[in-house]
Amino acid sequence: MRTFLSRALLLTVAALGACGTSPTASFYTLGAVAAREDDYPVRPVGVVVTSVTVPDLVDRPQFVVRVSDNQVKLDEFARWADPLKSQIPRVIAADLVVLLPGARVSMYPQEVDAGAPYRVRVELQRFEGAPGDAATVEALWVVIPPKGSPSINGHTLAREPSPGPGYEALTAAYSKALGDVSRDIAAAIQASLSK
């Protein structure tokens, strides 16, 4: 009888253990979303996005969501498909291609073939948001023109509402906020070109 009860208990525990499954992780990528607003003249210019720094707090695979002023939460099941320090420079470069027609934009100096390029550095101060709320991106950026012209320093604080609940909508809001950063950088390059 004792053996029977032991086996029955073991089978019950095994059956209950099989019922519980962990949630599946979802993976997200940022995208270029900037659209031309001004009719800038087409002018061939080289632009290199040389570096983008990301706060250590968010430079991880999991989404980091601000819960309160002094608390954040990591969501193990909402993840970036690629590290942010790789995605963000690509998104800014892709946005600049749209915003600066005729420009050759790269993240690698050797790929800009003609003349001295404009160099762009971006330091993200904030990259935070919450699903169903908004995404906030705050960036300090520097545009270094060719030929010894003075550097152009800028600051962008972009807050984009999330177009819906969930992490996919939050990712879209982050992409739009990065588009605002790119738009400010493009305007600085255009202003420098017109001097």
* Biggest sheet, spatial arrangement of strands: 5-2-6-7-8
* CATH first level: Alpha Beta
Q: What's the SSE pattern?
A: HEEEEHEEEEH
How many H/I helices? Answer: 3
Q: What do we call the CATH topology?
A: Rossmann fold
Sketch the major β-sheet.
5 strands, mixed
Quick one: how many beta strands?
Answer: 8
The first-to-last residue Cα distance is: 94 Å
CATH superfamily: ABC-type transport auxiliary lipoprotein component
Shape: elongated
Count of separate structural domains: 1
Catalogue the unreliable spans: none
Strand content: 25-35%
Mean pLDDT, all residues: 87
Shape-level CATH architecture: 3-Layer(aba) Sandwich
Q: Work out the helicity level.
A: 25-40%
Question: Class by helix and strand content?
Answer: alpha/beta
Gyration radius over CA: 23 Å
